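S1.2 Input.
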Amino acid sequence: MTSPECSHPKPLKIGDIEVTNRVLLAPMSGVTDAPFRRLAAALGAGLVVSEMTASDDLVNGRPMSRLRCEATGIGPHVVQLAGCEIRWMAEGARIAESAGAQIIDINMGCPARHVTGGQSGSALMRDLDHAVRLIEATISAVKVPVTLKMRLGWDDRSLNAPELARRAEAAGVQMISVHGRTRCQFYKGEADWGAVRAVRDAIAIPLVVNGDITSFEKAVTALQMSGADAVMVGRGAQGQPWLPGQIGRRLETGIVESAPALAEQLEFVRALYDEVCSHYGLRIGLRHARKHLGWALEIAARCSRAPAMTLGNWRQRILTSDDPHLVHRSLADAFDDFAWSAAA
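S1.3 Output.
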């Protein structure tokens, strides 16, 4: 039975593209590479977005930038671009489109100092005229829909998300996502979903609320407080790539799903580990895979109520190994150990 507070009569659409459900996987730098996005999409996320890619790096053909934009092969291909120069954003969007991107997302929300220091990401919310020129140039450069991700503002004295959203919609943006914090908050405190309501009141295009969406209950509350059409799950999906899909299905059907069994979780993390190592090449892939291994171990330990010492011992053994065969054996042993804890 569909929860009445979660029912939506019309499907979520970005331009002419219909989204599977109303729970999206947020773009996360160093996390949402093609292997992770592919897994989350296969497990039911309504839409997955590439990790942020610097537009000038993409234009200059840097290999890692091209890798960040790789398609998953499941669902619409969304590439998020960041930058502060009009020519790079326009050309980067053209390159992404020619490589198969079906949606271009503009990043005006990243709070990282190395991004805002270059006047990109959320720094653009300090100069809305320039931000709008970037948006207009990006839209003019491509035929696919363009979306925008932002924060509430730079700080508590400049909560200008509604104004930017209104101007972005007028320029032709097809969907807007808002993280319920200012840039100066980074990830401290709690996301203010209620503050996103002012953006809802300013625009008619689809709105997505983001920030601290770690459960179905929080997703429902965020939707109610913000008036948004969809939610975006970021850090809550780390170690549990099934979460966006589970929330999305429950919003549609009301059916409650528990976390996958430990055996399934083991299959997911082993497959992701192998794909990450293949995606980047073994030397770089081993480093990228460790964060996913750590998160997966933490989630499995939490699901099984394993002692902190048990988790710590397995983290030490697995995250320091450069031998994929040993990692696979250790993962199997770790999950067996967690299963014993669950059965105790």
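S1.4 Remarks. The two ends are 35 Å apart (CA to CA).
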